Amino acid sequence: MALSDAGGCVEGKVTDAEGVLLPGLHVYFGQPNRRYDHGILGDDVEWGSLIYMQQGSAAHGPYLYEEITLPKTRVFEDFAPRLADLDGDGAAEIIVIETDINKGAQLAIYGLVDGTLKKITATPHIGHTHRWLAPIGAADLDGDGNIEIAYIDRPHLARLLKIWRYKNGKLTLVAEQGGLTNHQIGQTYISGGIRDCGAGPQMITANADWSQIVASVFDGKEIRSAVIGPHKGRNSFKRAMECRM
Q: What is the per-residue pLDDT for 90?
């Protein structure tokens, strides 16, 4: 990513200043900087702030602009914010990768609280510098009415799928499984995501050595994974997400 104030995109979901994911709502990163030398996303530029802009209307009230600036010991080590209604109130929460320079990445949830942008909750940091995580997506994976958020913990090292349930403004780890990944060092995107081909949500990733595409489901107790086809480049993930694999 270039050292500019433009945001980015996450595999088809543009959330920068020029792309609207929800009507009238723009959420993007700002304050690009080079204070963290990890470079796992293809360059050494990370982000220092999160910006929330809601256009005013008769239905939604006046124009709203909110920006949160991280301390110098942290960055958003991410491509772009992800928007999802995690609590069912009709308003989007913001899912980001927030990294402490000494403790590594965490998955963080931001949102409006009484009209002010705030950090609502987060997973623990991985615990070591230069350690990252790659989100898969958010959905009610087990049909219990609560939203789960899935990511790969250290996709280049541990290759560990973790599922966290969001409930009452908190995240609880509910399942994990090894042998899966969704990002290679230097890639400017995260592969796969969550699909529903008619039988409920499935998490699409690669296996540990990138030879196969894998679909995983969560039933509320355990994760079950199955190979659905060979990995033959990025188009394999596109076919899988379109239910053609």
A: 84
Extract the tokens encoding 12. Answer: 């088809």
> What's the confidence (pLDDT) of residue 129?
98
Q: How far is CA 190 from CA 9, 151, 186, 226, in A?
A: 10, 10, 11, 20
Q: Coil, strand, or helix at residue 238? A: helix
Neighbouring-strand partners of residue 12: none
Backbone angles phi, psi at 239, to 5 degrees: -65, -40
Cα R_g (the chain), whole angstroms: 17
Query: Running DSSP on this structure, what letter comes out for residue 21?
Result: S
- Rounded to 5 degrees, φ, ψ at 237 are -70, -40
Place of tokens 């995580």: 133
User: Which residues lie across from 189 on neighbouring strands?
Assistant: none
Q: Is 191 helix (H, G, I), strand (E, B) or coil?
A: coil
Reference 79, options 2, 165, 159, 152; nearest CA is: 2
Per residue in 147-158, pLDDT (tens digit) is: 999 999 999 999
Q: Which residue, among 95, 192, 209, 103, has the nearest Cα to 152 in the 3D structure?
A: 192
Indicate the DSSP class of residue 85.
-
CA 32-193-116 angle, 5° bins: 45
Instruction: Enumerate the H helices of the chain as residue ranges.
Output: 234-241
